[in-house]
Amino acid sequence: MFSCATELKAESMMPRPLSRIAPEWWDYTTLDAAIIRDAAALSPRAIEQLSRPGFRVVFYETLQDFYLAEALEYIVAWRGATADEPVGVCGPIGPTEQLPLVARLVNELGLDLRYAHFWGMDEWYENGREVPVSHPLSFERADRELCFDRIRPELRIPEENLHFPKADTAAYTASWNTARCAVMQGGQGDTKHWAFNDPPRRVGAYQHEPPTPKEYRSLGSRVVDLHPVTLAQNARTSGGGNIGLVPTQAITVGPCETWRAEKVSIWHAGVHDNPLGQRLTAMMISQRIIDTSVPMSLLADHPNVQFNYYRGGLGDCSVEMH
């Protein structure tokens, strides 16, 4: 296995290769080939054994159990919310299957959410502002239609406690001071991002080396340019393959807010990142191989991270022609 003692360093004598996907960007294809080989070789059992203090790997045998467990993280967090100590969840669009389950559980349990909070992770940015909720890909619209509008009116989170990213990020950033974030959920994109924390462009000071972990960790909520792979992925998963429908920029929660979450919980159903990606980030986090060309690897330094896998969606990295 690639040793922690040989972590990637800026002072490496060998220049980093260009991306095989988009040469003007950083991404996982610029890593040492040994890291990729070791990740591809991981069996499901080996992935389970990557757990360590601060990083837990959990497998689910059915999709029903997988999405129910994801929904229950919302319920467990919100049940602890009080007037003196409001509690919130930061949640993704992708996956989304948990959201109707959250609404059903709230309604069936009669859970009063008056002191609960919710932060959307990200939103598309176009024409100098966040996209309106009328946009077919609006994340705020999806959150409301799939979850919050389905909760009985007398139980709903107050509108002022719903925090969605806007082009002017000041209010969103300040909202993280209004409640304790018990858990930040996320999926993992093909660029190994959480939210839209994509690898950066290969320009200026980052032409030969990507940003240091310290530099990337300093980033807060912001407008970002999206890696071409992210555009293609979102077109595939949400737009029927129509890349022209996908904005090239987005507003994202940043590492600064992520480190305010008591727990970061990443959900791998097998419909977003591929078999290699699902292995690669777990290995890098477990072994503390931190490199900003793989943004998810920064979570190696977070004190409480959990990777959740649907066993049937993990796949393998064997070569099979189709």
Radius of gyration: 19 Å
Task: Output the structural class.
Answer: alpha/beta
Low-pLDDT segments, ≥5 res: 1-12
Average pLDDT level? 94
Which structural traits does this protein have?
Rossmann fold, 4-stranded antiparallel sheet, 11 strands, 27% helix
What features would you describe in this structure?
With 322 residues, the protein is an alpha/beta fold. The chain has a single domain (25-313), classed as Rossmann fold. Helices cover 27% and strands 16% of the residues. It contains ten helices and eleven strands. The protein has helices spanning 33-40, 44-48, 63-79, 98-109, 139-146, 170-175, 213-217, 228-238, 255-258, 275-286; strands at 55-60, 87-91, 116-120, 122-126, 129-130, 162-163, 180-186, 222-225, 249-252, 264-268, 305-310. The strands form two sheets. It has a seven-stranded parallel sheet, sandwiched between helices. A four-stranded antiparallel sheet has the order 5-4-9-8, with no helix packed on it. α4 links the parallel β2 (87-91) and β3. α1 packs across α10 and α3 (63-79) crosses α4 (98-109). The longest helix is centred in the N-terminal third of the chain and has 17 residues, at 63-79. The protein starts with 32 loop residues before the first helix and ends in a 12-residue tail after the last strand. The relative contact order is 0.19. Mean pLDDT is 94; it is low at 1-12.
